[in-house]
Amino acid sequence: MGESRGAFIALVALRHAALADAVLLLAPAAHGPRPERRAEALAAFHGACAAAAPGAVRRGGLVLFAGDPYDPDPAARAAAFAAGMAQCGAEALVIDRPPAPTGHGAARDPAFDGLFGARLAAFLVG
Fold first, then answer.
1. What is the distance, to the nearest Å, from the Cα of residue 108 to the centroid of all Cα atoms in its chain?
2. Which has the least CB within 10 A, 53, 78, 97, 113?
């Protein structure tokens, strides 16, 4: 599991098969919130998803939050993640911009665990 930069690092690690049974990415980011870096951020995310090795994981989860200034295009990233998981033969779960909590640090909001913890844990365990 990784959040922000840690989530992006976990995604990049999927280039290597069989490092983990499951991965959970919470608000992945690596390029900052500046508008001039959005195209680079989106390209890097797409590239990392496309590079996921067959058999890298069995299950992959992605949580994107509304109002995240680090996310250049949530819908495109959700689609790229789902395609990457399909490519490596993994079951995918995408939670795409729930109504709450919001913002880049939403995974650290105390309400996040109550809203999504059990669902995410059940998915990751299988």
1. 15
2. 113
